[in-house]
Structures are given as C-alpha cells and as structure tokens.
Write a structure and sequence with these properties.
Helices cover 42% and strands 26% of the residues. It has 638 residues and is α+β, with helices and mostly antiparallel strands. It is elongated, with a radius of gyration of 43 Å. It folds into four domains: 10-119, no CATH class; 128-264, no CATH class; 271-280 and 555-635, conserved putative lor/sdh protein from methanococcus maripaludis s2 fold (Beta Barrel), CATH 2.40.420.20; 334-446. It has a 16-stranded mixed beta sheet that branches. It has a four-stranded antiparallel beta sheet with strand order 10-9-7-12, with no helix packed on it. A hairpin with a 3-residue loop joins strand 20 (583-594) and strand 21. The longest helix has 58 residues, at 331-388. It is built from 15 helices and 23 strands. The chain has helices at residues 37-44, 52-63, 69-81, 89-92, 98-102, 116-119, 128-144, 147-160, 165-177, 183-196, 198-221, 229-248, 250-261, 331-388, 395-446, and strands spanning 10-16, 19-26, 31-36, 268-274, 278-283, 290-300, 305-310, 317-318, 323-327, 451-453, 458-463, 470-471, 476-492, 503-508, 514-524, 527-535, 549-563, 568-570, 573-580, 583-594, 598-602, 613-618, 633-635.
C-alpha cells in the first residue's frame, strides 16, 4: 500500500537566514522536528494513492525538482522511522524511535532527510571533503576582501555541520560586521578564521597571494585596466573559483558552479516598483444596471377643481406633511381657512417676541451666575491660605470677593422679579399659538381633499401645477422625491454571501467604497439580481450613469496593486520577479482583479511582503519574463 503522510501533524512554515523550512509538531508523541521546504512538499505528495513513480513525476511537474527512486525510498524510510507516516509508530501510538527521543529537533537545524545534492544544491556528498571545500572557498574570499561572498560559504558549511561551534562563532562575527568590507573588518574576520581553522588558512594564504600577483600582472598588461570596479570584482571571483574548483571538485564542479552562480551572465537592467500591502476591494465584473430614487412619488389631484395656490417650485425642500398646493375652496371655507392661517402667523410673531425677551433675561442671568461663581472660587482659594498664614493673603482680598458674591446674589434676586412678567407673557403667547395651530389643523382636516401634502421629507423635482389651472381627480400635479438615498440594481453571476438586510460596499466613480444595505436578492435570467440602498449625502447620485457604481465582491488583505507589465504568465500559473539583494527571485502569485493598466495580486504563501521591489520592465533586450531566477539585476529606479 502506498505510504500516507499523517494528516494530524501540525505543520508551520518558518524562515531563517533566507532558508525556508517547516516545523512538524507531533501531537501524539509530543515531539517536534524540522524539514526543509522541498522535503515537506514531497512528503505532502505521499497521499496513500500515488505510487513512488507517480510521486517522482508530480514533484518534477509541480516543483521542477528531480529525485531518484532510491532516494525517495530512503526518504520514506526516514519519515516512517520518525512516525510521520500512517501506520508507523507515531500513528499507532507506539514508541518513538530512540534516536529521535534523544535529540528533538524543533530548535535545531532542519532534518537532512534527502541527499545533500537535492537539498542544498552541492555537487558532492556532505562529507569532510565537501566541508573543507566550502571552508577553503570562504577563507579565500575573506583573504581577498569579499565578506559578502564569504558569508554564503560559511552559512553553507554551517548547514553541513550545524554543531560546529567554530562555524557558529564565525557566523556570529559576520552578523556583527554586516555588509561592511573595509580593511579593518577583513583583517578582523581573517584573524578569527585563521585562529579557528589554522590548517585550512595555511593552505589558502599562498593561493590568495599567487592569485593577487597574477591579477596585478594581468591588470598592468591589459588594456582593460580602467573597467568598472564591479567587472573587476566579478573577474577576480571567476578566477578564484576556477582555481579552487579545479583543485577540489574538478571540471564537473566548475561547470556546475558557473551555471548555478550565473558567473558569466550579464546583469539585467530593469525598472521596479515598490509594492505596498493594502486592503484592496475586489469588485464584481459588471457595474450597476439601474439607479433609481429610494423614495419617489407623483402627487395627484385629490379632487376636481381649480388650483388656488402652489406653495413650492422645482428644487423646493420641505418636511413631511407640509402643504405643497391647494385647490379652490368655497368662499366661506376659504375665508375661514385664511383667517386661521393669519391667526397662526400672528400668534407665532407674538411668541417669538416674548421668547426673545426671555432669552435676553436668560443671558443676563448666566452672566450674573458667572460673576458669583468666580467670587466663590476665589474665596475657596484664599480661605485656606488665610487660616495657615501663607501667601500674604490680606483681609481686604477676602472682603472684596465676599462683597462681589453678595452683590451677585442681590442681582439674581432682582432679576427673578424682573423675569416674572416676560415668562408669563411667553407662556400665554405659546398657549395662544398652540390653539391657533390646532384650529388650523382642524380646518385643514375638513378640506383634506383640497390639499396636497408631502408624503415624506424631500424635494419637489417636477412641478406641473399652476395657480388657476383646472384639474380632474388623479391628474399629476408634481413629482416628489427623497434625495437622501438611491437604490442600485446589480446583475451578478453569483452572490452567495449577500442576503437581504445585510451589509455590503459600493464604490462611486472609482472612489473609496462606502457601506450600503442589501434590500433584495433574487434570481434573474442572467444570474442574480442584487438591490442595495446607498446613502447619498450630496443628492447627486440619481443623476449619475449606472456604470459609475461598482459592487464590492470581497476585500483582499494583504494584497498588492502592480502594473500588468509585471505579470509573467506560465503554464503553472502567474509569477512576478522580485529583487532580493539585486538578484532575481520568482514569486508565484494569484491575480485577484485586473484591468488594462494594473492588477491586484496576492501571494498565497505569504512570501511577498510590504516594501519589496517587483520588476515591471526590462530596459535592455528582452521582456521581464526572460529574466531567470537567480540572475543579477541592475535597478534603474523605482
């Protein structure tokens, strides 16, 4: 039966010094291990269905990674010994292998299950010869002053022998030095390396001296002595590697290193953009199909007759129940109604006059109360000082504020008497006004079939009625509309997350999406019909084209907006080229939305981060898609 990678293992992605690995926590044995990324990906292919040949083919197809049948079998045996496969000791609840119990690997380096050639890309087995080769390369680069390149070799050596305290000490020194490569840093690091690895340093020192002499002679005789520093650096690296690899690994190692390091490859000149992680709305494909007022009504003639008065014009804003126009009334009724309206007008005028007087007295009272409060605050501040004989407080100061307080109280007493008359007058005026309004309302109720009122607060947008016009029952007199909100209709393919009464978002004219309320969701011949209510503070949405409104399908976060020229279409999906220390790195991405100019992308693995640089144009010959992973990049600007 084909092996099956246990599904109950807890797997989490981690990254350290640019190396991706996965932490595997076994909840049954309470142990933890780490696998390199490619090891984890291969393990996931062990699904109990694929044969070994099918697993090898899937790994080759999905990850462009070659693995032989013997290597895969050894890998499966290792996983089984650790209890990572169904039916193994870890799955059955049996004992964990003694070797694993002795050394849990959660905080150590990843388990090297695959052969070193497959995991680390080295040309030989991870034996002492390979370790010595890496250390010679590192020491030679230190001696020549190339600290950045030396770091790569030291890190590779540490991967082969993670328990070596000498390598850990050198890596720590490199982290302190950083990318600095001045004479002081080079000498410091060389002395440390020479002290820790004296035999290898003794081998490398004469090699570095002969290489420097050869370069000096070649430089004096060559016409290329004035070439840029970068080309000279590359040349020295090439010849150093040639010499070292011929001595240690032979021609095969030399060919492999030239290919892997792209030593002779010219840097690609590219233009990049710095991406910013954001919460980006993703819209449904189609804009709104219809825009209409949320509330709108034609007001008709309630009875036959002649229009006596039109009280609004186009654009008039009125409150609900306000009278918009009246039909002619019998003379006596009209006279009585006019008298009632006049009474209300006069009562309002009297009330406003008395209200103004009481407001003046109220302002006077507030001013006097402020004077009294100031005096009280001063007395509270001075009395403790007087009792303790501090601050030089005199009796004169205390008496001053006492007098001010007494004066304020007397003013308030006098004001209270002064307020009695105006307050009584205001109460009487309010009572008379309320009675006049009530009488008018009763008269209007008797002639309700002669009045046209606003059904809700809004605007008169199309007034057709004219004073003196004769109308029949049901004739359209004016169009009344509520401009505070509009109803938008969208026809979408599917909308499983939208329900009537729920919330959604709508963008207007390419602006920031605003909240909207779903009023209806129904099946349609072309998909799903979604109606939403959108508040309209400006009152202008009703006059806009439906194509200006877009319904948000989802918000992607974190997502990135990039020019479409950055996208590389492949059979395996879409990719982008990211500049990492001026080297090309591929990132597999998903395109969430796109138009002619830009696209919204997301990296499912989470590797693409805020502030990274993505290549959008290649300025020399070729397209962005022609840049190979690992190539050198020459950045022309952001």
């Amino acid at each position: 039966m084909p092996p099956t990678f246990r599904t109950d293992l807890v797997c989490s992605r981690e990254e350290q010094q640019g190396v991706v690995f996965y932490r595997i926590d076994d909840p049954k044995s309470q142990t933890s291990f780490r696998l390199y990324e490619i090891e984890y990906l291969i393990a996931k292919k062990l699904d109990g269905v694929r044969t070994q040949e099918e697993v090898i083919a899937a790994v080759k197809s999905d990850f462009n990674f070659d693995i032989t049948v013997p290597d895969l079998q050894r890998f499966i045996n290792q996983l089984e010994s650790m209890g990572f496969l169904m039916g193994s000791g870890g799955d059955a609840g049996g004992p964990v292998p003694e070797a694993l119990n002795q050394a849990p690997r959660a905080d150590g380096p990843p388990i090297d299950l695959l052969p070193p050639t497959e995991v680390s890309g080295a040309a030989t087995d991870t034996d002492k010869a390979e370790l010595d080769r890496l250390l010679r390369s590192a020491l030679l680069h230190v001696k020549q002053g190339y600290i950045v390149h030396a770091r790569d070799y030291f890190l590779a050596a540490k991967e082969l022998k993670p328990s070596d305290e000498r390598l850990q000490k050198l890596v720590n020194h490199l982290e302190i030095i950083g990318d600095a490569s001045g004479p002081a840093e080079v000498e410091y690091l060389w002395n440390q390396a020479k002290e820790l690895f004296p035999e290898l340093a003794a081998e490398v020192e004469p090699m570095a001296a002969s290489k420097a002499a050869a370069e000096s002679t070649a430089t004096g005789a060559s016409a290329e002595g004035n070439r840029p520093w970068e080309e000279d650096l590359r040349s020295r690296i090439v010849w150093t590697l040639v010499l070292l690899l011929v001595l240690v690994a032979g021609v095969g190692g030399l060919v492999w290193v030239i290919k892997a390091a792209r030593i002779f490859e010219k840097a690609a000149r590219v233009k990049v953009v710095t991406v910013k992680a954001d919460r980006i709305p993703i819209f449904y494909d189609k804009p709104a199909s219809d825009v209409k007022p949320l509330q709108e009504a034609w007001l008709n003639a309630p009875s036959a007759g002649k229009i006596a008065e039109v009280l609004v014009t186009n654009g008039s804003r009125v409150e609900a129940s306000a009278v918009l126009l009246t039909l002619e009334l019998p003379p006596l009724v009209a006279k009585e109604l006019a008298a009632a309206k006049d009474a209300v007008t006069k009562a309002n005028a009297v009330f406003e006059k008395t209200n103004e007087k009481t407001n003046q007295l109220l302002a006077e009272r507030e001013a006097i109360e402020a004077e009294r409060a100031t005096a009280e605050d001063k007395l509270k501040e001075l009395r403790p000082k007087s009792l303790l004989r501090q601050g030089g407080v005199s009796k004169r100061d205390l008496e001053k504020y006492k007098r001010l307080k007494v004066a304020a109280n007397k003013k308030l007493t006098a004001l209270a008497k002064k307020e009695r008359g105006p307050k009584a007058a205001k109460a009487k005026a309010q009572k008379q006004r309320d009675a006049a309004v009530k009488k008018l309302e009763m008269l209007e109720k008797k002639v309700t079939n002669k009045l046209v009122r606003a059904p809700f607060s809004g605007l008169a947008v199309d007034v057709k009625a004219v004073a003196g016009q004769t109308v029949a029952v049901g004739d359209k007199l004016l169009l009344f509309r509520d401009p505070a909100a509009v109803e938008l209709v969208f026809i979408v393919e599917k909308a499983p997350d939208l329900q009537a009464g729920g919330e959604t978002h709508v963008a207007v004219g390419g602006g920031k999406p605003s909240r909207a309320k779903v009023t209806n969701v129904a099946a349609d011949a072309n998909g799903t019909k979604v109606a939403v209510k959108l508040a309209d503070p400006s009152g202008g949405f009703i006059d806009m084209q439906p194509a200006k409104f877009r319904l948000v399908r989802e918000f992607a976060e974190p997502a990135f907006r990039v020019p479409t020229s950055a996208l590389i279409e492949t059979e395996r999906g879409v990719r982008v080229i990211v500049s990492v220390q001026k080297r090309a790195m591929e990132r597999d991405i998903v395109v969430l939305d796109r138009d002619a100019a830009s696209a919204v992308i997301k990296d499912p693995s989470g590797s693409l981060r805020d502030g990274e640089q993505i290549a959008v144009n290649r300025l020399d010959d070729g397209e962005v898609s022609s840049i190979a992973a690992g190539s050198f990049l020459e950045i022309e600007g952001d």
